[in-house]
UniProtKB/TrEMBL annotation:
This is FMN dependent NADH:quinone oxidoreductase. Residues 1-176 form the Flavodoxin-like fold domain. It is an enzyme of class 1 (oxidoreductase). Its cofactor is FMN. Quinone reductase that provides resistance to thiol-specific stress caused by electrophilic quinones. It comes from the Bacteria. It comes from Niastella soli. Its EC number is 1.6.5.-, 1.7.1.17. The keyword Flavoprotein applies. Gene3D superfamilies: 3.40.50.360. Belongs to the azoreductase type 1 family. HAMAP family: Azoreductase_type1 (MF_01216). Binds 1 FMN per subunit.
Amino acid sequence: MKILNVQSSASMECSLTRKLSASFLHILKTRFERVEIMELDLVKCPPPFITPDWIAGAFSKAELTEQQQMALNRSDEYIRQIEAADLIIIGTPMYNYGMPAVLKAWFDQIARINKTFSFDLSRGDFPIEPVLHGKKLVLFTSSGEFDFQKGGEREAFDHLVPHIKSCAHYLGVINENDLYHIGIEYQEFKDKRHESSKNEAFARITTLVDEICLY
Ligand SMILES: Cc1cc2nc3c(=O)[nH]c(=O)nc-3n(C[C@H](O)[C@H](O)[C@H](O)COP(=O)(O)O)c2cc1C
C-alpha cells in the first residue's frame, strides 16, 4: 500500500493533526506489512502559488516555453505523487474557518486540466470529470471552536471540510465512502470537552484502520 502523507499545520511538534496522522500511520504499519510512505510537508516546503506562466502552460496546446515548464514542475511532481498513492492522508488545522494557505496552494497546483480533470462542454452543466480514480482519503482536522458539523451551530462557518470534499475528485477520490474524516474540536477552550473530543478522535483511529484494511 502506497501512502501520500500531506501535512499542513504550522504548529509542528504541538500540532494535533500531525499527531493524529502519525498515530494513524503507526497503527497502519502494524496491520500492513508493506506500507510505503511518501512524506509531503507543505510547511517545511511550501508549494508555489500559480502564476501567469503556470496558467498559460497548463492550458497550452503547443510545446511549453522554458518558463512555462518551470512554472509547472512542482505541479507535475505533486501529481506524480498522487498517481502513485493508494491512500492519501491530509492533516489540516482550521485556519480562519478554512484550510491553511499552503494546503490551498497545493490544491491549486494539483487541479490540472487533462491531468487530474477533463473539461468538456458536451457534458452539459457539469463539464468537469475526474481523471484519477480508486484513491482513498483520510482527513485529520482540528479546530479551536466547535459545532461545525452538519446541523451544528457553526455549520455555516465550516469552509474546511466541505472545501476539501469538493476538491477530493482531483485526487481520484470519487466515492463518498472513500473519504474518511476524524476531527478534534474545542482546542482553544482547553477544557473537558476538548479532552474528550481529543480522546474520541484518537480512539477512532484504530477502528478506522480496521475499516480501511477490510475494504
Ligand atoms: C492562524 C490560526 C487561525 C485559526 N483560525 C481558527 C478558526 O478560524 N476557527 C477555529 O475554530 N480555530 C482556529 N484556529 C485554531 C486551530 O484550528 C487549532 O489550534 C487547531 O488545533 C490547529 O491544528 P493543529 O493543532 O494541528 O496545529 C486557528 C489557529 C491559528 C494558529
